[in-house]
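Hi, here's the filled form for the chain we discussed.

Project: internal
Contact: R.S.
Residues: 98
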Amino acid sequence: MLLNRGVIADLGDVAAAHRLVASATRGGVLFWLGCCQALMGGLIEKDADAAEVAAMLSDMIALGLGGLGIDAANAARFSDAAHARRALDRAIGILTGQ
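And the returned structure, exactly as it came back:
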C-alpha cells in the first residue's frame, strides 16, 4: 500500500474530522481505488470525448464521496462538473506537454 500513502493520509484527515462513516476508516482506500478502477474501465470501454469524461468523473466523485459518508452538499461541491473539466484539461496539458 506504499503507493496509496496519499489516499490513506487524506482519508485519515477526513476521518479525524468525523466526516466519514466508520466503515470508511477500515475499507475506504480499497473502496476509493475500486471507484477509480471502475471509472477507468468505463472510460476505456466508451472511448469517450473530453466532455463525457469530465461528466463521468464528476458523477464518480460524487458517488465515491457519498459512499465514504461525505454529506451530499460537500460531495456536490467537490464533484462540480466544471471543476472536473478544468482538472481534466490541466492533466491532459501536462501529459501532452501543452
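Let me know if anything looks off before we file it.
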